[in-house]
Amino acid sequence: METILSLKNLNKKFGKIHAVNNLSFDIKKGAIYGILGPNGSGKSTTLGIILNVVNKTSGEFSWFDGKISTHQALKKVGAIIERPNFYPYMTAIQNLQLVCKIKEIPTTKIEEKLKTVNLFERRNSKFRTFSLGMKQRLAIASALLNDPEILILDEPTNGLDPQGIHEIREIIKNIAANGTTILLASHLLDEVEKVCTHVVVIREGLKLYSGSVDEMTASHGLFELKVESDSSKLLEVLSQFEGISAIKEEENTIIATLSKPISASEINNYLFKNNVVLSHLVKRKPSLEQQFLTLTNNKS
Amino acid sequence: MLRLLNIELHKLKYNSASRILILIYFILLTSIALIAAIKFDIGPIQFHLAEQGIFNFPYIWHFNTFMASIFKFFLLLVIVSMMANEYSNKTLKQNLIDGLSKKEFVLSKFYTVIALAFVSTLFVFLVSIILGYSYSDFNEFSIVTTDLEYLFAFFIKLVAFFSFGLFMGILVKRSAFAVGGILIWFFGESILKGYLFWQFKDLDETSERVNSIMQFLPLESISNLIKEPFTRLSAVKTVAQQVGENLSKDFSVQPTDLLIVSVWTGLFIYFSYALLKKRDL
């Protein structure tokens, strides 16, 4: 598969803060990538570097196999970074015309893209009169003007109301359905889980995981267990059971993580034989959120 | 190059504040012609400024370019704000993300500076030609085309001054502070000049010594390009001679001044680019 973007040992230091630490990953054509990380983990800095607005400290990145310079490559990219930035005194159409001039593309698609994001009615209103949701939609229209090979979104739903979030997600899903490669940075896990096929998890600039979403959530699962009486007996018996890698207690519920496939009846049977009667037993697959928390907490 | 100019003009065209300032600037340039209307008629004393030779070729080139350059501050505001607004609106970031390189960004601003300076020069040329042919005592082609280097100096002067504005706009990132910064710079040069005069006060040829240092500073060198035209006027000279002053001064455009100013222009543009390149947005 064609590589659209490749990062090799990328580093960025702001004084003493190591914002991006030896980060490497590849973006292949056609997939939808999520960059996950808590606030301040270096997501936006990483995107800033590949988008030519932040200078890297060391390392390499190349667009489209390094065949063209970064600013030429960016003409084939659509990107939305944090807040939408446009000229407040220009109308939606005038702003998009300017983007066309910068990207060296004809202005013929402006109307079509404004319709895609439901802003056609407001095309002649000045940007400063727009609500945040409308600004964000104009930013998406602007990013789509060149029918980009890859769409980069940084926290696209940040600060929007539920309806705005829903609208933006619908637009993103439609774009993804057309086969456009997407790179989405977010700390909203369900957002990433819903739309992304691949995920890169970073914390404090370090890559913790990179791979497909399915692989990340794939594990042998976990058990939630409860007893009405003393839980120490349960803990003791559980710890002797082979195939349980970790046990922890969370508000009266005991969570046992598995290291090999074990069925619920198997464990119930074993506990009953050891004189433990359960009041609650559920087998679960971990959500992306739990996996994410596990990953980000492990190294702290 | 046309693409970059086109991008920048698109930004300027829809900005009403810039449009109004540019309009005021060109109206003021035209207002030089109003000097022709200055007339005193008090009994026996009849004085018509236009008849005093200020619109004579080739003196008019010197006089009009000097007067016109006073109005350059209006365009400076436009230029500083077109740079600083890119920071405050964060549109600079968006431009770069959209695929403009940092070099192209600075060049698009510089080309606009050149375009504005060129249009100003053309405008002053037209106003002077019309005024000159209306009031000048000499209309021979060879005299009309003498001293046209003042127009060239005017153009270089504007380009340098506006490049300084661009640089301050990038350096300070806020329009008001950038204009303030230019004022502070100007005061700094004035204070240095005063200090030098005080230092050299006991030596011979004080002002020559001071000027030999001051001519290398940006604002001083820019203002040196076109020297004040008033004492060159024959009417003034006559009066001066009557009171025993001998005004002999070289009013022509000096190649060294042109060179110094051009070097400063280059430095301002280069440092603007270097600053932008170094910064994270």
Q: Tally the helices of chain A: what do you get?
A: 11
What's the CATH class label of the largest domain in chain A? Alpha Beta
- Output the CATH topology of the largest domain in chain A: Rossmann fold
Strand content of chain B: under 5%
Q: How would you describe this structure to a colleague?
A:
The complex is a heterodimer of chains A (300) and B (281). Chain A is an alpha/beta fold. In chain A, a hairpin with a 2-residue loop joins strand 11 and strand 12. Chain A folds into 2 domains: 215 residues, P-loop containing nucleotide triphosphate hydrolases (Rossmann fold, 3-Layer(aba) Sandwich); 63 residues, Alpha-Beta Plaits (2-Layer Sandwich), CATH 3.30.70.100. Chain A is elongated and about 75 Å long. In chain A, helix 4 packs across helix 5. Chain B contains 13 helices and 2 strands, in the order H-H-E-E-H-H-H-H-H-H-H-H-H-H-H. The model of chain B has no long low-confidence stretch (mean pLDDT 88). The longest helix of chain B has 34 residues. Chains A and B meet through helix 2 and helix 3 of A and helix 1 and helix 5 of B.
Secondary-structure topology with pairs:
The complex is a heterodimer of chains A (300) and B (281).
Chain A: E1 3-14, E2 17-28, E3 32-36, H1 43-50, E4 58-63, H2 70-74, E5 77-80, H3 92-103, H4 110-116, H5 132-144, E6 150-154, H6 162-177, E7 181-186, H7 189-195, E8 198-203, E9 206-212, H8 213-217, E10 222-226, H9 231-240, E11 244-250, E12 253-258, H10 264-273, E13 280-284, H11 288-298
Parallel strand pairs in A: 3-7, 3-8, 5-6, 6-7
Antiparallel strand pairs in A: 1-2, 1-4, 8-9, 10-12, 10-13, 11-12
Helix pairs in contact in A: 4-5
Chain B: H1 2-13, H2 16-30, E1 39-42, E2 45-48, H3 59-70, H4 72-88, H5 91-97, H6 102-135, H7 141-144, H8 149-172, H9 175-199, H10 206-214, H11 218-224, H12 234-242, H13 255-278
Antiparallel strand pairs in B: 1-2
Helix pairs in contact in B: 1-6, 2-4, 3-6, 3-8, 4-8, 4-9, 6-8, 6-13, 8-9, 8-11, 8-13, 9-10, 11-13
